[in-house]
């Protein structure tokens, strides 16, 4: 249903502010996205927008009433970019977020740099540049005020959307200054505030998107409507690589409202996946038309694998020569000489993304332009992809982001916007393609299952002398057209703590790419989600083989000040040294996206003998950060998602098709199954790291290590039934 008061479009906002007066518009390149490490180039221009021919990214506009608008260039899917991007810019601009109107930027990498919301990169990839943009605007406004007062700029300061003259107390609000400020040349170097002077950054400010999401005015992709829009659902081949042999739409066309039934092909990595689209005046008619459709598939020419066959293949692959990612010393020699040898094999399952908002996308393809609306993680990627595939100039492809009801990597993929564009072009009308929950759960791409072979050798005093991992899994990079199928997996190290390399004299990390027609791709924390389980479970096994406390064992092998501080704080927060005899305690520490997270899980047995997760304590070291409340929320969400992946759900395959189709079989953890979660943040002077994903990898190994501590049973395969341990 269309909300009564729809959010204003960026185009309408620009029109409105153009009527209200002259605007100061600021933009900058993101050097981090181009390889240029020089300071951002900033430009100002009068008028409502910068000329399209200038390859700059516009961020801030101030109209002559003093109203400030800040663009968020990243997708908002619950992780908080809608809050933190403006929070950073506003900090240096010296405005309260209550004074700021936030808008989503359309896809345009030339203006905004990389817009892909993935790899927990929004803050860590651009925080210095965004701060600099805010500071540059502030200095231009100060310079304008100083000229009006005929005073030194050093006598002026900005605060709360105004510039003040210190000697006299006089002031101008930003709207008084914007017209003249727009005529200035921006300063080349601006001084950023020291952290101790921050008013917004580092503070738990209420999120600006929460009121919209609680009062029903937030527009998610599935809420979006445009004039003349039709609706489509697609019957897609359940075996991923099959083709349409024939279809019978005679009954479909009897459904009132059905307009078109067409074969459609969407790009999934290196092949075109086929389906039959039913297009109608409303979604209900399209869905009923699909139910009446009869399709015969051609599923020849590729394997129809089951879960058992997939994991049997991975186990066999472990016996093959591996592709080395990183080695040090001589593992084989050191392992032979080790006083204590430990070997283990771990399994992690295939997983669906299971976003609460299923995939959907609106496309309006005309002869010389394309307009896209939807829940999209990479608008610039979609813009480039559609421009190339559809033969439309890049600047004629507009990709508009809405709020996303979850993403986890799936909505960074390019297939569903491409499918919508293909259908729109064929029917010559705008169309919203809606995936059902069953489509979303069974079509993939999935997080790849993985099998890990781990070996470790200890000296007599319990030090790790040899450490090896071999991973058999589908290499996500091998899915792409033209990929080097003999290249190693560059993500085999994700989740592994870097100081271990210096501590372990002899190590080897390698992989064997498993080949399968099952499509796989990124999932929250990518390979770290499975690597972390194997590596930190095995570290725990080595600690027990050495007869040492698991946390002290890690401290001995992570000889790095940052890690030492994190471990000491984790010991204090959890009361690790005073843990009880009838409790199970487990720890895991992982590193990904430049952040380190340590988690301690406590378990116990209920009166009926079943195991209960009592508490999870998490300590996040993400360096420089923006909003602690968002960090806590993201770590809590990561832990809940990790609990589901560890003990509740996985995707199985039978005869080449995904089995779990909805939440009745792909079960999610319920609120009564979630333990007390206590999240803490390390304060230090490190560079900014990621937040949205690093909290997930430590949970599964910490949980399994806690269960071993309580029961003596090692869990090496996920998911497992907590009630059957």
Per-chain topology:
Blueprint: H1 10-20, E1 24-28, H2 31-34, E2 42-45, E3 58-62, E4 68-72, H3 81-93, E5 100-104, H4 109-112, H5 127-149, E6 156-159, E7 162-165, E8 171-173, H6 174-181, H7 210-215, E9 230-236, E10 243-248, E11 258-268, E12 271-280, H8 283-292, E13 294-298, H9 307-317, E14 323-328, H10 331-337, E15 340-348, E16 360-365, E17 370-374, H11 379-390, E18 397-401, H12 415-427, E19 431-434, H13 437-442, E20 450-458, E21 464-473, H14 500-503, E22 506-513, H15 528-545, H16 550-557, H17 561-574, E23 584-592, E24 595-605, E25 611-621, H18 628-647, E26 653-654, E27 657-658, E28 676-681, H19 699-711
Parallel strand pairs: 4-5, 9-19, 17-18, 21-22, 25-28
Antiparallel strand pairs: 1-2, 1-3, 3-4, 6-7, 7-8, 9-12, 10-13, 11-12, 14-22, 15-20, 16-17, 16-19, 20-21, 23-24, 24-25, 26-27
- Catalogue the unreliable spans: 1-22, 28-57
In terms of quaternary structure, the protein is single chain
Instruction: Give the beta-strand count.
Output: 28
Distance between the termini: 47 Å
The amount of beta strand, in percent, is 15-25%
Q: List the total number of helices.
A: 19
Could you say which structural class the secondary elements and strand pairing correspond to? alpha+beta
Mean pLDDT: 91
Q: Whole-number radius of gyration?
A: 27 Å
**Global shape:** globular
Q: How many strands, what sense, and barrel or not for the largest sheet?
A: 7 strands, mixed
Helix content: 25-40%
Strand order of the largest sheet: 11-12-9-19-16-17-18
């Amino acid at each position: 249903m269309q909300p009564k008061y729809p959010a204003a479009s960026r185009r309408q906002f620009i029109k409105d502010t153009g009527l209200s007066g002259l605007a100061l518009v600021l933009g900058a390149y993101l050097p981090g996205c181009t390889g240029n490490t020089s300071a951002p180039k900033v430009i100002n221009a009068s008028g409502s927008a910068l000329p399209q021919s200038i390859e700059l990214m516009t961020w801030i506009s101030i109209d002559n009433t003093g109203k400030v608008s800040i663009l968020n260039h990243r997708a908002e899917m619950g992780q908080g970019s809608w809050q933190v991007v403006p929070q950073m810019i506003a900090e240096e601009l010296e405005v309260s977020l209550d004074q700021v109107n936030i808008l989503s930027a359309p896809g345009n990498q030339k203006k905004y740099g990389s817009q892909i919301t993935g790899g927990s990169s929004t803050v860590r990839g651009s925080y210095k540049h965004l701060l600099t943009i805010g500071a540059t605007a502030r200095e231009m406004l100060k310079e304008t005020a100083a000229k009006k007062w005929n005073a030194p700029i050093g006598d002026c300061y900005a605060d709360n959307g105004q510039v003040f003259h210190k000697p006299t107390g006089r002031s101008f609000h930003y709207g008084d200054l914007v017209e003249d400020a727009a005529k200035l040349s921006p300063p080349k170097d601006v001084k950023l505030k020291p952290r101790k002077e921050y008013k917004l950054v580092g503070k738990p400010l209420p999120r600006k998107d929460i009121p919209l999401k609680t009062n029903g005015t937030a527009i998610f992709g599935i809420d979006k409507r445009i004039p003349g829009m039709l609706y489509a659902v697609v019957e897609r081949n359940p075996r991923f690589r099959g083709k349409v042999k024939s279809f019978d739409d005679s009954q479909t066309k009897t459904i009132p409202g059905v307009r078109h039934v067409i074969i459609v092909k969407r790009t999934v990595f290196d092949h075109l996946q086929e389906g039959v689209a039913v297009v109608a005046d409303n979604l209900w008619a399209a869905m009923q038309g699909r139910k009446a459709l009869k399709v015969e598939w051609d599923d020849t020419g590729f394997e129809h694998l089951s879960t058992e066959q997939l994991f049997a293949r991975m186990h066999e692959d472990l016996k093959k020569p591996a592709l080395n990612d990183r080695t040090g010393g001589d593992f084989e020699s050191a392992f032979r000489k080790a006083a204590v040898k430990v070997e283990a094999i771990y399994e992690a399952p295939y997983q669906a993304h299971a976003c609460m908002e299923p995939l959907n996308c609106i496309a309006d393809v005309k002869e010389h332009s394309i307009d896209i609306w939807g829940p999209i993680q990479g608008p610039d990627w979609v813009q480039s992809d559609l421009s190339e595939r559809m033969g439309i100039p890049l600047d004629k492809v507009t990709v508009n982001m809405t709020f996303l009801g979850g993403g986890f990597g799936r909505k960074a993929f390019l297939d569903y916007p491409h499918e919508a564009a293909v259908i729109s072009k064929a029917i010559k009308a705008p169309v919203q393609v809606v995936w059902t929950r069953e489509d979303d759960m069974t079509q993939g791409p999935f997080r790849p299952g993985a099998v890990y072979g781990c070996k470790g050798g200890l000296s007599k005093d319990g030090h790790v002398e040899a450490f090896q991992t071999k991973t058999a899994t589908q290499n996500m990079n091998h899915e792409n057209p033209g990929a080097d199928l003999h290249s190693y997996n560059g993500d085999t190290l994700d989740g592994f703590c870097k100081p271990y390399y210096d501590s372990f004299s002899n190590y080897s990390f390698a992989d064997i790419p498993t080949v399968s027609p099952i499509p796989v791709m990124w999932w929250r924390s990518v390979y770290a989600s499975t690597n972390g389980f194997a590596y930190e479970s095995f570290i725990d096994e080595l600690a027990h083989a050495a007869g040492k406390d698991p946390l002290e064992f890690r401290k001995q092998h992570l000889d790095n000040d940052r890690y030492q501080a994190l471990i000491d704080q984790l010991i204090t927060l959890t009361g690790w040294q005073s843990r009880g005899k009838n409790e199970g305690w487990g720890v895991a520490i992982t590193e990904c996206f430049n952040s380190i997270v340590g988690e301690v899980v406590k378990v116990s047995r209920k009166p009926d003998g079943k195991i209960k997760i009592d508490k999870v304590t998490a300590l996040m070291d993400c360096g420089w950060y923006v909003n602690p409340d968002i960090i806590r929320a993201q770590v809590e969400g990561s832990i809940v998602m990790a609990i589901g992946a560890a003990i509740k759900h996985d995707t199985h395959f039978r005869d080449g098709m995904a089995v779990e189709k909805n939440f009745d079989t792909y079960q999610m953890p319920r609120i009564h199954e979630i333990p007390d979660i206590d999240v803490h943040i390390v304060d230090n002077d490190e560079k900014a790291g990621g937040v949205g994903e690093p909290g997930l990898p430590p949970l599964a190994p910490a949980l399994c290590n806690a269960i071993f501590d309580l029961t003596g049973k090692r869990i090496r395969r996920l998911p497992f039934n907590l009630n059957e341990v």
